[in-house]
Amino acid sequence: MARLDKAGQQNDWQITALTTATSIVVALNQADYDGLLWDVAASNLDTTLATVMLIRETFAHPIIAITTAPSEREQRKLYRAKADAVIDRTIAMSVFSALFDQRTWAYQNAPAPVTTPAPATPPATTYQLGAITVDPTNYTVTKNGQALNLTKKEFQLLVYLLEHQNQVLSREQLLNGVWGYDLLGTSRIVDIHISHLRDKLEDDPKQPQWLKTVRGFGYQLEN
């Protein structure tokens, strides 16, 4: 940390040190940051991967993971979680500064996405959960007529659960069905998104009416 503080002074960086995954997510939602340096040793790998995947949904800035002698397994999982770089903590600060500058430049100069007309598709079903209406065609969710602010992945997870309502789905099924790839057993991201969905959908998230936990297996959307 002392080396990073020194580099921060040399590069005129304002560095905020946070100690928990939750505090990082909250901080990124409350203020603008130019990048995230994640110390893998500060939490277990599953928490790291789940949080990085969650942050990546809305954080269009460099995410750099730092660890000691990163193994092939660590690097593979971190890159699949969409980290920009995985570096050894012995890296020279001059090299780290150059890396951070390069990644920042890449984000700032990324070309605008090319939009193409969406292919014609048959109208999707509108789902109803009590006072909750989910419209997959228009990407909207309302409760008592008020729009709910879901992230892209929260919306995709909700629609996937609705498409399989009343079925018990394992965390691995949800991970593969919504995120589209397997992080070799990393299912913490599913638990985080289910928790966030309950906070937004349920009248009492601690006693959910719709999103039920099936202990020892996964989740079920009851309707």
UniProtKB/TrEMBL annotation:
Leader sequence residues: none
Alphabetized UniProt keyword annotations: Activator, DNA-binding, Phosphoprotein, Transcription, Transcription regulation, Two-component regulatory system
Domain (OmpR/PhoB-type) ranges: 124-223
CDD domains recorded: trans_reg_C
DNA-binding region(s) in UniProt: 124-223
Organism superkingdom: Bacteria
One GO term of the biological process aspect: regulation of DNA-templated transcription
Gene Ontology cellular component list: cytosol; protein-DNA complex
Gene Ontology MF terms in the entry: phosphorelay response regulator activity; transcription cis-regulatory region binding
PANTHER family, sorted: REGULATOR OF RPOS, TWO-COMPONENT RESPONSE REGULATOR ORR33
Name of the protein this chain belongs to: Two-component response regulator
